[in-house]
């Protein structure tokens, strides 16, 4: 009988300590996360962040590394927090030394500027701060985080100029600053991004002036400069040798001869409407097997729409309002 009692007591002891044994979250990281929650006013959306639970497995928006830096917080996603009043980006975020991914998204009550404490995150690769009301310039101190690959600041109230230092980030793959209040010209230094740089999303800002010729060096997969006040030549963004899949230059004042540009064989979408582009449509468009979107309306194009490929499957409105473009799906040509 006494042996059974001893076994029962042992079982109870094991059960009582098993939660502690199963705790994976690093205690220092856990305290930092509690501070982040406090700086955000302890929102109900973070109700799973409890002292009695494991931040690596049970906390919404938190995940840990289990290989390179075991049980250290690696990813932090603060999305849809439904904050009742305005809050700044928590300064304590800089105290998670193994953080590689931050996403602060869809939080209109996040305001203020990007805090310099982020520079303490020397392993940070992906920085997403989008759909908030942060303002100010894109800070120069981000140039210290050489590990950055993705920077997405879309749908905020950022202003100032595009930072000329961005190409100094050796691992940068993509930038998205869409739907902000960024002004000025595109820096000539943007032609010196690393070979891995592939996505440049700058639409719906207040950019002006001509594109620097240095952009010809870029080999982008996606480029979106639409909804700005850019002008002049944009032909350097094209090239038959490039890997470009999507080009959107709509609603600017670009003026160049479209008939003289080379087209990527990987091109899927070409949106050039509402510009001053002239010349003819390149015949190479008919050989693009991946093309699913083409809009060249409201330009100064002329000549017959090449026959073949997918060009006749697009609606006539995507060719409309040009100088003298004709042929299916537009009315037939009379003079060509």
TrEMBL record:
Q: Please report the stretch or stretches of sequence annotated as the EGF-like domain.
A: 66-190
UniProt KW keywords: Cell wall, Disulfide bond, Leucine-rich repeat, Membrane, Plant defense, Repeat, Secreted, Signal
Tree of life domain: Eukaryota
How does it sit in the bilayer? Peripheral membrane protein
GO BP: any one term = defense response
Q: Name one GO cellular component term.
A: membrane
- Which parts of the sequence belong to the Leucine-rich repeat-containing N-terminal plant-type domain? 27-65
Q: What family does this chain come from, according to its entry?
A: Belongs to the polygalacturonase-inhibiting protein family.
* PANTHER family on file: POLYGALACTURONASE INHIBITOR, POLYGALACTURONASE INHIBITOR 1
From the Swiss-Prot or TrEMBL record, give the protein name: Polygalacturonase-inhibiting protein
Q: Which organism is it from?
A: Psophocarpus tetragonolobus (Winged bean)
